[in-house]
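Re: folding output
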Amino acid sequence: MNPETNTTAKGRIANILSVAGSDPSGGAGVQADLKAISANGAYGMAALTALTAQNTQGVQGVHLVPPEFVADQIRVVAEDVRIDAVKIGMIATAEIARAVAETLPDVPVVLDPVMVAKGGASLLAEDAVAALREALVPKAAVITPNLPEAAALLGCDAAVTRGAMAEQAEALRALGCAAVLLKGGHLDGEESPDVLADANGVHWFEGVRVDTRNTHGTGCTLSAALAARIGRGEPVPEAVAEAKAYVARAIAGAGALDVGSGHGPTHHFAGIWA
């Protein structure tokens, strides 16, 4: 990537804050976010919401950060560092959701409503879904749910067709966010389409499904890349296209890594490392 293209409209390298949980195996959470933000030409920072004990085979334990300390991390960073965009990932509880909502700086927010880990472990308490929907969704420039997450937010069955995806994306946008990127990775078939609903209508972003187990942290990676590009000043549709292409490269290049025996991570620096 040409360093000359990494700056915001004001000629400065963008600063992106990730508010999310930690993955000690490095494939998801803030670890993935910081890699994706860096690979997309911005400076990454992180406020932790939870510590997890996990590897590529699954989550074995979660230790929550007290809500007031989550808020303190965001507040202290914002007092000293210009923040150009925020990515929100694992929130875990209603209390943390509200604490984050009350402390967010007035910048574009990309919300990835993380609910279940790749291995099946729940990462969001049942009562937190309402808090996420009411406190954080309306503050988002873009939310990036997958099909089960969209269904949980809307209280309906998961979409199984493109038509249902478009309808649910519009319904989610009616909750108050500026745009919705609904990810179609759970659809059957060889394609993996995503749909963006914004003020200009519905836009489709096509993708070919890659037959691989190395998809740990793809949602984290996509939302962090999107936040980096929005923070750099790119329009949302352009940022979505670039972030999706980046994730596709990261998945395709994952075979170069040798990390774990379960759902391996994507290669965040595919095409960048020699």
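--- second protein (sequence, then structure) ---
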Amino acid sequence: MKADLVYLIAGIGLLLAVVLPALLQRSAASPPIVLVSVGMLIGLTPLPDGAPLDPIQNHLLVEHLTEVTVIVALMGVGLALDRPLEVRRLATWRTWGPTWRMLGIAMPLCIAAVAVLGHALGLGLAAALLVGAVLAPTDPVLASDVQVAGPRTGDHEVDEPDEVRFTLTSEAGLNDGLAFPFVYAAILLAGAGAFPWGEWLGWYVVGKIVIGILAGIAVGRALAWVAFRAPRPSLRVAERGEALTAVAALVTAYGLTEVLGGYGFLAVFACAMTFRSAERSHDYHEAMHEVTERLERLLTLIVLLALGVALTRGVFDHLDWRGVLVGLGLILVIRPIAGIVAMAGSKSRLTGGQRVAIAFFGVRGIGSIYYLAYATGHADDLVTEWMWSTIAFTVVASVVLHGVLATPVMRRIGDDGRDDSRDNDRDDDRDPVG
């Protein structure tokens, strides 16, 4: 009977993944909101007693499931970005100016502010820093309502005109890896002895980042050469449209980088960007992006349903006013202010309304769950049940608040880079599943 119930739940969940994008296209309720709600209802059913719902006891399962979901999303994000970024061309770096500001200014400000707030609420220094680091990255998985829809190839091969979507997408693609040094800082700080500043700066900040980027570029170039320029036609998979190369690319880039000791998240994004830069107008990129998008949708379905089940099965048991203050403070105050500060000196063509939108839509999601599960496995004495309750609350609050506001706000500011209320009537055909 219990096995039959699992099949029934899985079937209903998969059906929701198929019908929700079109059904909720113009609704205030986004697919992630509905999926979490369905998960909560499932949690009220007579699930097997041994269901792995305790995130601390089952941190390895949570870590690996969210890890795979994030790297698939990062591959899709890298393939979706049309704007080039070339190491030897300074002009291409300037077009990413708002992204660098959000990464270099807004993200550290968010980490510091959440850490200070947590410490003021009674957390130890290491615990406060860990909460700040875990909640730092914006999510490439749950933020599709405010991100670019996918690669534009063929006759449409031009720079992405929507600065808001581009900035939020590129930020989400990079900050998952760049938050890792701060997670390691919290873990090292919780250890015995003095904090190893030299090791942290030299290895965790510089070394692992460099390895991740270089390994990702190397894998991306190698696979692009095989796909588009291999001397034997049988090896040129782009000509056959074999889109599973996307899966091979993300697994190879991530695995190689982790073996070398670098940040695999950065490697996957760098690999996707490098592959995208080869034969940029080729339709093969659309096929690869479609594969990653479908795989991401399935994994996201599993994670969101599991999160919803956990909410009604005890994850919120240790949530108190401090956790609510941290979560809402980050979403409503800290991230918006940090984003506005970061964008204040930008010379981009962004209008005031668009800068505010970028500052506000810092969606928290599956990446935060991954980082906390990772920290649980590497410093179990540091991670508490209160942290899991707080991070779960923050993710759910972000899913609801940002999910409800994403569609009307993005229509209001206009998809063409202008604040224009006339765009309210424009059909939005993007796939809203994140």
